[in-house]
Each structure stands twice: as C-alpha cells, then as structure tokens.
Amino acid sequence: MAAEEEGAAPSEMAATFKVLHDHSDRIYQWDYERNRTQLVGLYNKAMGSQWNSVTDLDWSTPVDPEALVDHDGAAMVLFRAAAAEPGSPIAHWGDREFTALGVELFTASLSQFMHGEQGAMLTAAKIVETVPWIDAKYYAATQTMDEARHTEVFARYLDEKVGDAYPMNPFLEEQITALLEDSRWDIAYLGMQIVIESLALAAFGDMLRRTEEPLLRKLLRYVMSDEARHVAFGVLTLREFYEGLSEAELRDRQEFLLDNTLRSRSRSTTPEVWDRLGVDIERLRPHIAAAAARSQVNPFAGFQRGFFAKLVPNVKKLGLLDANNGYLRERWGQAGLLEFEFEKDTASEYAAYDEVARDRGARA
Ligand SMILES: [Fe+2]
Ligand SMILES: [Fe+2]
Fold it and tell me: Under DSSP, is residue 84 helix (H, G, I), strand (E, B) or coil?
C-alpha cells in the first residue's frame, strides 16, 4: 500500500510541472558602469511604476462571469451564424448555451494570459542570467517581478472570480519553450519582448475594450502599462545589439520572425472549449467556415491588426525589416503588413500606457 502511494506521487507531481533544458550561457558582468542611458531611464521608471497586486486592486469586487460575456463580439456573432447553417451540430442552441460558450471562451483566454505570463516570468529571469549588459540585467530583474505579479493576478482572478481554468495551449507552450531553450540570448528577447508582448498588448487591449467589469479593467490597464515598458526594453536593447550583427545573423532573426508570424499555426481554434460543451469541433468547423465566408466576418481580424500595428514598427526600429536588402520587408509586404510600418514603435510611446502614474497623479 505504502509502495503504491509512493509510486503514485511522482506521476501526480509530473502533471503539475514541466522540465525545460536551456542551452544558453549564464554571464557574470564585472563592468558596472551605467552607460546605457535609455535603459537606465527605463529601469528607474520601472522601479517607480511597480504596483501592488494586493492593495492596488479591489479584490472584493463581485464578478458574475455570465455578465462578462460579449454577445455582440465578432466571435459570438460568427458562432450564432454557424448555428444557423444547415446541418449545424449546434442548431438547437439557445441563449443559455451561447452564454455558457461565452464563459468558456473568456475563461480560456484568461487562462492563456496566465500561462503566457508565467512564460514571460521565466523568460525575463533567463534574460537576467544571459544578457551581457549590466543595465539590461537590472531592467530584466524588474521585469521578472512584473511578470510574477501578472501571473499571480490572472491566477487569482481565475480562481476567485471565475472558479475555473484551462491548461496551457500547446502552441503557446511550444512557442515559449523554444525561447527558453534557445542558446542565443537575443532570441529569447526577440520572441518574448517583441513578438509575444506585442501580441499580449493587442490581446489585453482587445479584452479591455470589451469589458465593463471594474476589477478586470483595472487589472488589464495596469498589466498593459508594464507590458508597454517591457516591449520598449526589447526594442532599445536589440536595436543596439543588431547593429553589430552580420547580414547572415540578421537573416536568422528575420527567419525567426517569419516563423513566428506568417508561418505560425493558427491559435484561434480552441478545441478544449468545444470538448467541454460536448460539441465535436471537427463537425462544427465547416459550418463556422461557411458562416464566415457568407458574412465575410473574420472575428480575429481586428485583433490581428492590433498585433501587427504593434509588431511591425517595433521590428522596423530594430533594423530587421530592411536588413538583407529588405528580405523581411518584401515578405511582410506580400502579406499586406507594411501598412503598419509608420505606426508608433513601443519604445517611443510606452509612457502613454502608464496608467499607474496617471492613477497616482489623480490621487495626489
Ligand atoms: Fe506580463
Ligand atoms: Fe511583459
């Protein structure tokens, strides 16, 4: 009996954590001179903008997950249209089922935010260890704390207000694991600070626009003000680092960006949500496609535009759009992404996101 219990423990434990193998070098930096003034400024700003997840958010706010469902959102409109398609497996659905779907979609999104934030915490900690500049190590240390707070607040919201959570989406897990295991320190930066955090800013902004719930709104505003600073950190560091790389090395980074944008598999399908609702997604999928074609609605178009409007100008500022005779410019241009190249890069506008300073100013 005791042996069985002992035998059971490791497999239960294994389900609660995952082991990764990093291939990068850890670096001690003996040169403590603070000569990167923009990074020093960003670090000072980060220290002053730390908020407190316990005292700055009102956790006594009552939350009704069903009231959070955005019935007029493009995704929900599309799913209702899919229900009306001939032979649809959800043809019998009424308001009750669509509300349940909305709660599951919301829970699934928030769960990915939580897991992605933990990935960001691990990545920021990796950057502390692997980046060769002292000012960047200091900044990444503040970011590690920010990401701990983000992980914690999404986890608490899911636990106390929603009462449910989903496992990490395998595509997101694969994407972040690759960053954490890569031997090149700047790839962790490029993947997290530039790609995933630009994506996060767009996703959080999208949820913020669609919710009136005051606790969630404040939480998102505060997380976004940190994220904008994190993206700025990535832009400032990598711009300097990439000035010293060869064309061949820059080409690797351009390929990385293509893999993580145009070639990345869609993360828009959420099979677990449909599993929980007892719907076979493979049977439903053609009806969703038919409804989308008929109405010409792509519920993810607005979100993707938001993502590329952040990503493209940041990548341009790194010099990666135009390196190798405009290799990335040409490919992104073919995909119609260059309309965003003159948007503001996040290093130039991160202060505009500083909701924490605004709230403190209003209180003072
Ligand atoms: Fe974060
Ligand atoms: Fe972040």
Answer: helix
Read off the pLDDT of residues 22-81 as tens digits, 9 standing for 90 and up.
999 999 999 999 999 999 999 999 999 999 999 999 999 999 999 999 888 888 999 999
Distance 70 CA to ligand 1 centre (A): 24
Which has more confidence, 64 or 16? 64
- 255 CA → ligand 1 middle, Å: 25
CB-based contacts of 63, cutoff 8 Å, min separation 6: 161, 162, 213, 215, 216
Q: How far is CA 339 from CA 73, 118, 195, 332, in A?
A: 25, 32, 18, 10
pTM: 0.92
As residues whose CB is below 5 A from the ion ligand 2, the structure lists: 120, 197, 227, 230
- What fold is seen in the domain 25-363? Ferritin (1.20.1260)
**What is the average per-residue pLDDT within 68-95?**
92
Nearest to 292 by CA among 70, 69, 74: 74
Ion ligand 1 neighbours (CB, 5 A) are 117, 120, 147, 150
Q: Counting Cβ atoms within 10 Å, is residue 195 exposed (0-12), middle (13-18) or buried (19+)?
A: buried
Query: From ligand 2's centre to the CA of 1, what distance in Å?
Result: 46
**Cα 38 to ligand 1 centre (Å):** 21
Are the beta carbons of 116 and 176 closer than 8 angstroms?
yes
Q: In the chain, where are the structural domains located?
A: 25-363
Distance from residue 222's CA to the centre of ligand 1 (Å) = 10
Query: For residues 141 and 44, is the Cβ–Cβ distance under 8 A?
Result: no
Instruction: Say which residue the tokens 């940041």 belong to.
Output: 314
Neighbours of 357 (CB within 10 A): 14
Residue from 246, 242, 207 nearest 224 by CA: 207
Give the whole-angstrom CA distance, residue 64 versus residue 196.
29
Name the closest ligand to CA 233.
2
Distance 227 CA to ligand 2 centre (A): 4
Q: How far apart are CA 65 and CA 247, in angstroms?
A: 51
Distance in Å, CA 191 to ligand 2 centroid = 12
Find the distance separating the first CA and the last CA of the chain, reported in whole Å: 63
